[in-house]
Amino acid sequence: MELMEITTEMISKRVQKVKSWTSPGSDQLHGFWLKHLISLHGKMAQQFNEMLQKGSISEWLTTGRTYLIQKDPTKGAAPGNYRPITCLPTMFKLLTGIIADRIQDYLEEKNILPDEQKGNKRKSRGTKDQLLIDKMILENCKSRKANLHMTWIDYKKAFDSLPHSSIIKCLDAIGICKNVGTFIENMMEHWKTELFVGNESYGLVNIRRGIFQGDSLSPLLFIIAMIPLSTILQKTNLGYQTSKNSHKISHLMYMDDLKLYGKTETEIQSLTNTVRIFSTDINMEFGLDKCSTVALKKGKIIESEGINMPNGQTIKCHQPEAYKYLGILQLDNIKHEHVKTVVSNEYTQRVRKILKSKLNGGNTIKAINTWAIPVIRYTAGIINWTQMELDNLDRKTRKLMTIHHSLHPRSDVDRLYLPRRSGGRGLLQVKQAVKEEEHALAEYVKQSEEPALIEVKNQKLLKAQQTKNQYKKTTLQTRADNWHNKTLHGKFLDKIEGKADKEKTWLWLTNGTLKKETEGLILAAQEQAIRTNAIKAKIEKSADDPKCRLCKETDETIDHILSCCKKIAQTDYKQRHNYVAQMIHWNLCLKYHLPAAKNWWDHKPAKVLENEHAKMWDFRIQTDKVLEHNTPDITVVEKNKVWIIDVAISG
Hints:
Blueprint: H1 8-14, H2 31-36, H3 41-54, E1 63-70, E2 82-87, H4 90-109, H5 127-144, E3 148-153, H6 158-161, H7 164-174, H8 178-189, E4 192-197, E5 200-206, H9 217-235, E6 251-254, E7 257-262, H10 265-281, E8 292-297, E9 300-302, E10 307-308, E11 314-315, E12 323-325, E13 328-330, H11 336-356, H12 361-377, H13 387-403, H14 413-416, H15 430-447, H16 451-459, H17 468-485, H18 491-496, H19 502-505, H20 507-511, H21 516-526, H22 533-539, H23 558-563, H24 569-591, E14 608-610, E15 615-617, E16 634-637, E17 642-645
Parallel strand pairs: 1-4
Antiparallel strand pairs: 1-2, 3-7, 3-8, 4-5, 6-7, 8-9, 10-11, 12-13, 14-15, 15-16, 16-17
Helix pairs in contact: 1-3, 3-8, 5-16, 7-8, 7-9, 11-12, 11-13, 15-17
């Protein structure tokens, strides 16, 4: 690796990945300012290069601020009752992020990272890769009735145990350039953090072992330090084969999560002992209470006494208890039904929490899409969901929305899942989210050249005829057509077709600032979903009179209620009209620096307002010819321009 020099372009590119308003460390600098003070990037590049060349590092740059958050107040001040949250200096995260990017480029260029390690690996699906490979092995073992021995290894405080000397040796072994290696070594020597409980400081702690957590470089350093373990395990030539000539799989890793595979008891003991010896050399210990092993003979679980290691420790067989590997419960196979139950309960619990909150309509949908849906999406391609199960989850979501007055029970289902810019509410459908992820995984596996993923493709675990984008486009188009073709629900869409600017028509939806209850009611009204007398008589074929219950003259439709009923023309309609005019008048007063109330709803429009900027009138305009309608709502007179504003609210 050539000597590294940081350029202005590197800083400008990397700073875009820094979060704008995350809590800063001792520098008290938010990422927002680094993104917008572009003129500083050149000077920052110069100072960063001085650090790389000279190896000198300021104390504040490598000092974190660790806040100890009490988990349970009833348990008092016991050390184990505190959760540490460390805030690192923003400048430190920027600098280490640039270095991490360069090291990643080098690792990819030289193909140094092992396929078995998916932590922090670019162009991979991370844990989903490992879960797919693991699922393939388990199903292959069952179908072939083969022998398989597996061990799950859990490290005790892995990120806090790794010695800095191991990291330095591994960096040197893979050929990291001298100035970066020296900088990292000096940086680790100066690592420290200041402990806080509330606003009270409890002093500085030097970090002599382990890595920082919260920057981009530290996890990469951990992965580099674990490369020798993968190399040693590969050279044992042990592991499971899905067929006679296939690639041997001895282990899978995601950061410190390690799973070992062997064909025989001897193989799994040898692999486990190899891992133990390596771990001991780098001062890392097994968390034996969380380690487990299982043995399969001809595809079925057999009793096992566990793995007895030379140092006297034993990894127990936790049968019949299942083991949670990367969030998925498994033993001899994935526990599909149990995972479905747990995941479904977690999903509905999150949806319920969101709907109970006071978020507006737009943020409610966004919260469901970004906090609840990912719980289900993570299992896509791993758990075998049926169409009925996914439909039931969608039905449950709509029911919860109805219970919390966010969705009318007769509202259009297709419209709910359309984007807001197209007139929908933008909710992600559970079934669509799962299918999209399955299509994306199938496309990814199909294009992969990694031996283990080629085996996944050959086993045909993922079946998809379309790409993710094709599926998404087809689904959205079908949904839009269904909504448009419905007699009642699509009536509003027919009325505005070719007559209105759709982008502006749906602006209130894309803004998403209305209450979720109001949003649901407006959409129900547009879709003719509210049970008016006309709907009851003509659609439901009841014996009710279709006439308006107020004026008794015309059919009681939504259009009639909104703008055509004579009984409320001088009351509700007039009040609605005046509110709109009042808000416009208030905004104009602010624009032209005329007297106005603090809030628009307290504003009382005067007949005449005037200053050096403009005049505002609210009375009849004298004209040469007689005009029947000569009283606009608001008249604004500027120096060279006159605005005549008239408010009309249509149904």
